[in-house]
Design brief:
By secondary structure, the protein is mainly alpha-helical. It has 7 helices and 2 strands; from the N terminus they run αααααββαα.
């Protein structure tokens, strides 16, 4: 509970929105860096793993919407998919509804890679939350999910207002 109180104090100090944003962004950066260091031998980066994870949830998605989901430029996503296709992790299939578009699917090999990466991510999460009780970890997850939901709703609302 003590560490959660320290986080709460840090969040409430000075400019609250800037501090929360900084803490979340800096923590995500550190997670990516640590993940990349642990998976260097596999050749899979944190961003590629994120792409594969999203693709598992949305198999058959087109490249454009997937680029929006993971917040990269379409050309960046195309290059990432090229590398993952060369590694036999992702395949492009023609979209039956639009000959110009490609749908993305995971290959059977991707499932094996996802399993290994999941173990790495779980170990990293355990290290990052070391010293937190199970209740504190659940509280942290709940709070961050609520922040994400708040931001997602605002982004969606803003998009609706501009249409």
């Amino acid at each position: 509970m003590r560490q959660l109180n320290i986080v709460a104090i840090a969040i409430m100090s000075y400019d609250m929105s800037e501090t929360i944003g900084f803490l979340l962004n800096d923590t995500a950066r550190l997670f990516r860096r640590a993940f990349n260091a642990r998976t260097k031998e596999s050749g899979i980066t944190a961003l590629q793993w994120r792409l594969i994870t999203y693709l598992k949830r949305h198999e058959g998605i087109r490249q454009g919407p997937l680029a929006e989901l993971i917040e990269v430029e379409p050309i960046t996503l195309s290059r990432m998919v090229d590398r993952l296709a060369e590694a036999d992790l992702v395949e492009r299939r023609a979209d039956p509804a639009d000959r110009r578009a490609w749908q993305l699917y995971l290959t059977p090999r991707a499932g094996d890679v996802l399993g290994g990466m999941r173990a790495t991510a779980d170990a990293l999460t355990a290290e990052a939350t070391e010293g937190l009780s199970a209740v504190e970890r659940e509280q942290l997850i709940d709070l961050v999910e609520r922040v994400r939901a708040n931001l997602s709703r605002r982004i969606c609302q803003k998009e609706k207002e501009t249409i």
